[in-house]
Design goal:
Length: 396
């Protein structure tokens, strides 16, 4: 007799092994040094979308607006805050003493004085001049449309960066994006607004300013009768080396032909205005990850929020997360204090977070493996990569 086991014995052994694996409740997949355990998570088949005859071409990503349930503490209108915009901004060479603050308040035509922290950070070598403020104290020092936007002040209190609209344009910043401070933390652009503070690129909270090492009590803002506060008087009190900026210079001009045409006061808080901006902002959470990969996954999973599930496998939301996966990798993308699997403003950055945890930012085969972890199918990986390449060509 041969020493080899019979075919029947081999089949019995295979069945026994499969039974043990099924009883274990999970599958362990090992690829190189990656170890991913899935909890009975099947391959999520994307739904078949029936072709629509006679319809126009699908809109571009920059025309598709993400939608989510309204956030209760976001919206227009504030608690009766009256704007008292600064007429003069000054940066002192050191912390302004309390006695000097009192003397500044006694200057002719000065009605209000506030002193806040200030400093500069560098993002990829580019300097940003920021004020660090207490949101409740500083709110009235901004233009009325800005003061009337509670969402902006909520975002500031939660540690976001409120960028001046001019800085957004000048530096090409993206609302909702994360920016790495050289030698420091990452800052999220939580809102943008016309602040009316010449030379100031944005605001952060006082707590964040302290953690960034900002100079305490060096920025002085004064409100009073327009065009009347003495620049020389402020400079004299703050001493040699003080920088004084007149913010109401137009009112001080002796001869005015016509009132200057004011720019419309625009306030944008928390949420990118289109899926294109949302994918770009979310990709900044994972250095090295192209936004086109997120856009391709969004296309395959839900056609950019048009088919949010639940899927037959139980996946939810515009990026089709399994609830167990979302529990570990979901993020609060728009700073509203919640991680909502159904909200594109949370789901898209959550997808970036999940891909990055699987080393998608390294590109190449690491990127392909990260996409495979998202949905265990190499056909899925190839499809996503193909769509990503198409987006790269379209939006180049």
């Amino acid at each position: 007799m041969s020493g080899l086991p019979s075919l029947r014995a081999v089949m019995l052994m295979v069945i026994a092994v499969l039974a043990v694996c099924a009883a274990a409740g999970g599958i362990v997949v090992i690829m190189d040094d990656d170890l991913v355990r899935t909890v009975q998570e099947p391959v999520r088949r994307e739904p078949r979308i029936q072709p629509q005859t006679g319809q126009s071409a699908a809109p571009r990503l920059d025309q598709i607006v993400p939608t989510a349930a309204p956030v209760k503490d976001f919206g227009q209108g504030g608690p009766g805050v009256t704007s008292t915009p600064p007429r003069v901004l000054a940066i002192a060479p050191g912390t302004v003493p309390k006695q000097t603050r009192f003397r500044l308040g006694e200057l002719k035509h000065v009605q209000k004085v506030i002193v806040v922290d200030a400093g500069a950070v560098k993002v990829s070598g580019t300097a940003l001049n920021l004020l660090a403020v207490d949101p409740s104290d500083f709110r009235s020092w901004t233009p009325q449309p800005v003061a009337d936007q509670p969402a902006l002040w909520s975002a500031l209190a939660r540690g976001g960066l409120v960028a001046d609209a001019g800085a957004i344009r000048k530096f090409g910043m993206i609302l909702g994006a994360m920016y790495q401070v050289d030698g420091g933390p990452r800052l999220r652009v939580a809102a943008s607004a016309t602040l009316g503070l010449h030379g100031v690129d944005g605001l952060v909270s006082a707590d964040l300013g302290r953690s960034l090492g900002f100079a305490p009590g060096v920025a002085v803002l004064l409100h009073g009768k327009e065009g009347k506060i003495s620049e020389s008087g402020v400079r004299k009190l703050l001493g040699k080396g003080a920088q004084v900026v007149v913010l109401d210079a137009a009112a001080r001009t002796a001869k005015q032909q016509q009132p200057a045409q004011q720019q419309p006061q625009q306030v944008n808080v928390g949420r990118p205005g289109s899926y294109l901006e949302l994918y770009k902002a979310a990709a900044t959470r994972c250095p090295g990850l192209s936004w086109t990969v997120l856009a391709a996954i969004g296309q395959v999973e839900s056609s950019h929020g048009r088919n949010n599930g639940p899927s037959s496998a139980g996946a939810l939301g515009p990026m089709q997360f399994m609830p167990a996966t979302w529990k570990h990798y979901g993020v609060d993308g728009d700073g509203d204090g919640k991680k909502d699997i159904w909200s594109p403003y949370d789901a898209v950055p959550g997808a970036a977070n999940y891909l990055c945890a699987n080393k998608a930012g390294q590109g190449g085969e690491r990127l392909r493996k990260a996409i495979w972890f998202y949905n265990h199918s190499w056909d899925y990986v190839n499809k996503v990569m193909g769509i990503a390449e198409a987006y790269a060509r379209t939006y180049a």
